[in-house]
Write a structure and sequence with these properties.
single chain; alpha+beta; Alpha-Beta Plaits; Chitinase A, domain 3; 3 domains; five-stranded antiparallel sheet; four-stranded antiparallel sheet
Amino acid sequence: MNITKESTGDLTALITVEINENDYADKVKSSLNGYRRKANIPGFRAGKVPFGIVNKMYGKAVLGEEVNKVLSEKLNSYITENKLNILGNPLPSLENKDKADLDNDKDFTFYFDIALSPEIKLELNDKIKANYFDIEISDKMLDDYVLDIQNRFGEHSNPEVVAEGTEVEAEFKQLDADGNILEGGIAHKGKFKVDDIKLKTVAKKFIGAAKGDKVVFDPMKAFKDADKVAAMLAVAKEMLEDLKADFEAVITEIYLTIPAEINEDLYKKAYPNDEIKSEEELRARIKEDAAKQFIAESDKLFMSETVDMLIEKAKIQIPADFMKRWVLANNEGKLTAEQIEVQWDSYEHSLKWQLLQDKIFKENDIKVEQAEVREHIKGFIGGQYFGGQAQDPALASQMDGIVDSVMQNQEEVNKIYDQLYDKKLLDLFKEKLSLKNKSISLENFIKKASQPPKA
């Protein structure tokens, strides 16, 4: 047995494995003797079949099997013992043809291409600057939040006819050029506010209409707001860019909400556990809640941009040709070379991040233990279903049983592990990097967060 490694590029190498007869002969003989003991061949007693006959019948197949076992074992041992940090798995060499004629040869030579993991020199420190966007809570947003609370605790009724200030629920169906319902077109039951209609001629069609009445109109012309129309019809905003079509709207319900007055009674209903005495204090409390809600969104954007930035700074090199071959080999019948080529930028970006992430986890001793997963599940269930009483001894056994059940769902457990790793990574970035906080409007934040990823 002889194994050698020869560099073929910055991150690729050729491994040559030479196997001689001594490496496999005893194993082949032992295996054939096993066949001999079990063979049931007419004319011979069980276990008494001559070795030559067994060898003639099974010798080549057994030889191939045992040589492959030796090859796999020795190749893996060589990689481990020489601490070769490889990407993917060894692949049969493209440039060198194996010498493995099982009919005529006793010594065999196999060639494998391998890819080596690149060295990553990036270190997390405060010299690396990262943007963190804080979403501004504008006066307009606060006004909307206050109005939402007023409506939530206001008076609700169902008028007989549509009027200004009402909300309409209707069955929408897209029509064709002849005014007939378009087969396969958009159809959805949705709601809209009459006051959101910008085209007066359409607004007049709805004013005075009752349940069961039908109104035909072009939603995009009527509302002049793709976001509102997309929400009403439950379609992607992009679908509406070139949509020029009339819809039939059959009114199914009419709603009227008279907002509650802003007073101490409203403060108590909205925040029963707080002592709010004025509208100013109410707005301050709402602003505090909104800011907390936006932190999660800011964190997501921060992580996304920071990952892209760190990958760029790390300047990670990937042996692309080898990895494309490896992806193709591991997805045989599922992906073509052409599909891999189209998706390569995205795959390469993911691979670079995986390599960088592994380095960060190792250098910063980031781990997630099973006990942490159990505590996460317990905290979620306690908050959702036990009303914060999870510490009650009477509920402890029931809680543990639920946690045990969730832990049996490996897919769900893996998701929780990922969440906890992501949280630790987020905390590490905030601790190690130099963050530059920037205020941004919600509208601009949404635009920035909606930008497609780099790969």
